[in-house]
Amino acid sequence: MNLNDTDFELFDVPATFAQDRAALDARWKELQREAHPDRFAAQGPSAQRVAMQWSVRINEAYQRLKDPIKRASYLCALNGHPIDAEKNTAMPADFLMQQMEWREELDEAKDAAAIDRLRAHVEAGRARALSSLDWLIDEKGDHAGAAKQVRALMFIERFAEDVEAKADRWGQ
Q: What is the pTM of this model?
């Protein structure tokens, strides 16, 4: 193992969007056992610091690999198409129209049924976006297109938080 390995290399999994969560979990536990600082107590503080670096690196990789949006973002960046969501907010017109409709629907929601309908729409949009990432990255190798889709998915996630915040205000 090398600290400069990609997350995929570190976890010994293919550099693909589709991942087996159970395999990632098992590999994380295995790597953590190997790198745990307590295993290096007899070798002194220096060895324990290195083990701690490994432990942090393993945890960071695991957090990226287990989360579909982070994993897709990472794959895009590895393939020359960083997300740059702070600087690049361009979205397709049809996606922007959908967001405007959802925003209006949220503003006009007056009861639990309306919020539940909106949740269902948002979850369906999220599922479509995730499915398209699988196709764009693993099947097409279109990392530029995937980067656009990740930015859209990030927007959907933020909007879903707004829906939940309104539901929380109503005690749902």
A: 0.88
